[in-house]
Structure formats: structure tokens, C-alpha cells
């Protein structure tokens, strides 16, 4: 049966090169045992610069908000507006009533 199948494959143009299975087995073993890997070394100082930039941005933002809230140039409503951005959503109703509704009365 396999002889008949081989003849049919040869008629269709299928042929296996000599020592194909010996060489392919060796290539597969080489690939599995010693895969080619590229090691990428990333410099650590770049991460420190990114972290430092984020920290400076956060500190500058906090400093500007604190300066804005403590300055006497702005009205009380401006300060309340900035404070309202810092209030949690759950506490906002009580804060709004305390700062706006009770102020008007």
C-alpha cells in the first residue's frame, strides 16, 4: 500500500529530499534546546527620569492649587469652586448645603 502511495506522490511531484528527516530532526532539536533570543537591556535611568517628572508635575499642581486657595485676591466663591473639585461625590450634597445654602440664609 505504501509503495502504491509513494508512486502516486511521485507522479504528483511530491518528493522528499535525501536525509530530510535526519536534518529536520536535528534542526528542531537545536531550535528547542537553544532558541535564539534577543535580550533587550533598557537603561534604568530613563525610568527614574519619568518618575521624577510625574512627581514634579504632581507637586507643582498641588502647590498651585494651595496658592490659589490661600490667596486673598480671589473671592470666596472662587475658593469654594476649587474646593468643590476636591470633594468626594458622596459627601458633595452635605458640603454644598453647608457652604452655599446655609451661607445664603
Tell me what the structure shows:
The chain folds into two domains: 2-33, no CATH class; 44-104, no CATH class. The relative contact order is 0.04. Helix content is 72%, strand content 0%. The chain has helices at 2-12, 20-33, 44-70, 76-86, 92-104. The protein is built from five helices and no strands. It is mainly α and 105 residues long.
Rg over C-alpha atoms, rounded to the nearest angstrom:
37 Å
- Largest β-sheet summary: none
Q: Counting H and I runs of at least 4 residues, what is the number of helices?
A: 5
Task: Sketch the topology as an H/E string, one letter per element.
Answer: HHHHH
DSSP strand count: 0
**Structural class of the helix and strand makeup?**
mainly alpha
Strand content: under 5%
Overall average pLDDT: 77
What general outline do the C-alpha atoms trace?
elongated
Uncertain segments are none
What proportion of the residues is helical, as a percent range?
over 70%
Cα separation of the termini: 103 Å
Quickly describe the structure.
This protein is 72% helix and 0% strand. With 105 residues, it is mostly helical. The protein folds into two domains: 2-33, no CATH class; 44-104, no CATH class.
Comma- or semicolon-separated keywords:
single chain; mainly alpha; 72% helix
Please render the helix and strand layout as text.
Layout: H1 2-12, H2 20-33, H3 44-70, H4 76-86, H5 92-104
